[in-house]
Design a protein that fits this description.
By secondary structure, the chain is an alpha+beta fold. The protein has helices spanning 2-20, 94-99, 104-121, 125-130, 132-146, 166-250, 254-269, 282-301; strands spanning 21-24, 28-34, 37-42, 45-48, 54-60, 64-74, 80-91, 152-163. The strands form three sheets. It has a three-stranded antiparallel β-sheet. A three-stranded antiparallel β-sheet has the order 6-7-8.
């Protein structure tokens, strides 16, 4: 009998210990009530309670995610789009999170859906598809203000999907394809234009270089011809000078001059022309010839 009483006492002490000692982890806070009335808010660590009189409710302070279900929203230009988003929030006040809202997940989901309708209803379809950042910012601001009294802070909001009707998607796809083809045609035309301009510039530069090369070549040829003529003239001048000097140094007489003159007349007479023109001073030369004949006669007599 005594043993049974001891066992019962031990069990009662264990139950009292479990009821009186609670452990809160670093990311938790505890809202403690005494006989149904708020008593205090406990931080992380070991928390001692009065058994059967005080109760504790743990509140998670970590950032949490709410996935808002997809819903149909009508835009300003009467187009129905399907929109869903994700909300990231964290509890900053455990008291308000416990006492000011019954079901935070359900409350913030409905609040997000309502405000999505209001924001997207003021935008046309094109603006809706290109203004995700603006929608995220406006929705986060609205939800942050509304959830402040719930002891929570909305960290960020991300639009996951904005899906227009299928016929509009097909029309947008055709429009985008036409725009791409237009840009491709423009780029091709610009490329052809640049290619032709570059080719024309190349032909122009080639023609200029060719003309410059020809001009330089002609100039060099002219310089070479000029130098050749100068050298030829200088050579003839030197030759004439040497011949003149040789003649004067040899002291030629009239007979030698006459003989050379006759040799020249012989070469003139060898031509095909049947007319021979004699210079005016030929009478003097003929006289010299007569003198030469006399010289030959004297030689024979001797």
């Amino acid at each position: 009998m005594i043993f049974e009483i001891v066992i019962l006492i031990i069990i009662i002490l264990i139950i009292i210990g479990l009821k009186s000692v609670k452990i809160l982890r670093p990311y938790e806070k505890g809202v403690i009530e005494r006989l149904g009335k708020y008593s205090r808010t406990a931080d992380s660590g070991v928390v001692l309670l009065i058994p059967f009189i005080e109760t504790i409710q743990k509140v998670d302070l970590r950032e949490q995610v709410v996935d808002v279900p997809p819903q149909e929203v009508i835009t300003k230009d009467n187009t129905v789009v399907v929109v869903d988003c994700v909300i990231f929030y964290e509890v900053v006040d455990a008291f308000n999170a416990v006492y000011n809202v019954v079901n935070f997940y359900h409350a913030i989901t409905k609040l997000a859906q309502t405000n999505l309708r209001n924001i997207i209803g003021d935008l046309e379809l094109d603006e809706t598809l290109t203004s995700r950042e603006m929608i995220n910012a406006e929705l986060r601001e609205v939800l942050d203000v509304a959830t402040d009294k719930w002891g929570s802070k909305v960290v960020r909001v991300e639009i996951q999907k904005i899906e227009p009707p299928q016929d509009i998607v097909e029309a947008m796809s055709k429009q985008m394809k036409a725009e791409r083809m237009k840009r491709a045609s423009i780029l091709e035309a610009e490329g052809y234009k640049q290619s032709e301009i570059t080719r024309s510039e190349g032909d122009k530069q080639a023609a200029i270089l060719e003309a410059e090369g020809k001009a330089e070549s002609i100039k060099k040829m002219a310089e070479a011809d000029k130098q050749a003529e100068i050298l030829k003239a200088e050579g003839e001048a030197i030759a004439i000078e040497k011949v003149y000097s040789a003649i004067h140094d040899g002291n030629p007489d009239d007979g030698l001059i006459a003989i050379k003159y006759l040799e020249s007349l012989e070469k003139i007479a060898d031509g095909k022309s049947n007319k021979v023109f004699l210079p005016l001073e030929s009478s003097g030369v003929l006289g010299s010839v007569a003198g030469i004949a006399e010289l030959f006669k004297q030689d024979k007599k001797e």
